[in-house]
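Think of the structure tokens as a kind of shorthand, similar to the way a musician reads notation: each symbol stands for something richer, in this case the local conformation of the backbone. In the example below we present two proteins back to back. Begin with the first one, reading the sequence and then the tokens, and try to describe in your own words what changes along the chain.
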Amino acid sequence: MDERFKTADPKSCFAQLQADEACLLVDCRTEEEWNLTGIPELSAIGKRPLLIEWTNSRNQKNPDFIDSIAAFASKDTALIIMCRIGGRSASACQALVEAGFSDVTNMSAGFEGRADEKGHRNSFEGWRADGLPWTQS
């Protein structure tokens, strides 16, 4: 585990988004995932997630990931990074701290969480399972 960034569960991340006006949520899943499973809905707290792919559906890294975030955030802006279960977002967090961002948090369990014993997602952990607001287009 890289200790240069924090890790927090979805409910703690949502509380930080509510408490810190400048804090941003970056959903680094693929466009296909956003369309298939939905995205966090933050309008009730006057925000919207930044939808910036870390990798595309062919697992090719997005070369503009850091620059895309830098267009919205300074190096000291609090950033919460989420993916499906927390793995890709950890890699993205590592890249962000290496690029000089100083307040980076990986959301453990991500949007959907790990699969249960039956191979189903969203049953016991993650943004949706925690009852946090989300929408599907």
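Once you have a description of the first chain, move to the second and do the same.
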Amino acid sequence: MTTAQATISEDGFPTNFTMDRNFALEAVRVTEAAALAASHWIGKGKEKEADQVAVNAMRDALNGLTINGTVVIGEGERDKAPMLYIGEKVGTGQGPSIDIALDPLEGTTICATGGPNSLAVVAMAEKGGFLHAPDVYMDKIAVGGGLPDGVVSLDASIEENLKNLAKAKQCDISDLMVMILERDRHEELIAKTREAGARIQLISDGDVAGVIATSEPDTGVDMYVGIGGAPEGVLAAAALRCIGGQMQGKLLFKDDEQRERATRMGVSDLNKIYSLTELAKGDVMFAATGVTNGSMLDGVKRWQGGASTHSIIMRSKTGTVRTIRAKHNFKRKTWVDNEG
């Protein structure tokens, strides 16, 4: 069963563009493959095993696509990641040249513990569409769509951002819900947010889903703020480009080695605050499949010989958002890790 929600009237894709309707379905198949493989490990407390089968399944699915793909946000650099590493070529080598940002298992700890909002995620854009973010931290702030430009900023204090956001939403600060990763590094941020009067939803992991949550009214999340992974920041930006919202990100470096690595990857200004369209520009396609139940997607439901998945596919050019529910027969899917 497939449902579609279009935020603008145009539902078609230009025939001269590299990513067409059929390609959107192929992108979902990639995330479905990773989610199905990881689902066998939900709640088993084994992060590495869950992540590995998701990586294997996503790579196999990507290599079946008729594209000349390059992984620009992936599992890490080549010497640290045996596959889906930054710079790896995927696809058949035929077809359009596409840059790919991915996380086969966003929220490995969440999957291992059976918590909410673990996802399999992939984003695609024309060559040069994504910031080539190294595997470092990124300071992030994000809000949903329909707000004045620049309503929040990393240059402003949390108190100022809450005040400005409440004014834009015509509500009290006490009505705002702020999502923050539960980390020691956020103790001061959490304290100041509460002192300002806002409510907080702490999450253990999964900041891609956290950023996306700001764009969905049903989640009740008004702002995402805090420090998380830079690759996840680019993936979240890709989603917001499609679904609507505002985001800023600033790379954070702990030592000269990380700064040198960023420079080698093409980051010219190490102190720059990136806007949403600088993190993910051009025509972007974003797909995700739920591994565990979450605010945006249901998780994989398994039964003897099969499973169901819940996915979302979005495209920035048209603003179309589609959700896809699918049933899978494991006897006919050779790439599903059914043994664990």
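Compare your description with these statements about the second chain. Residues 202 and 284 are 29 Å apart (CA to CA).
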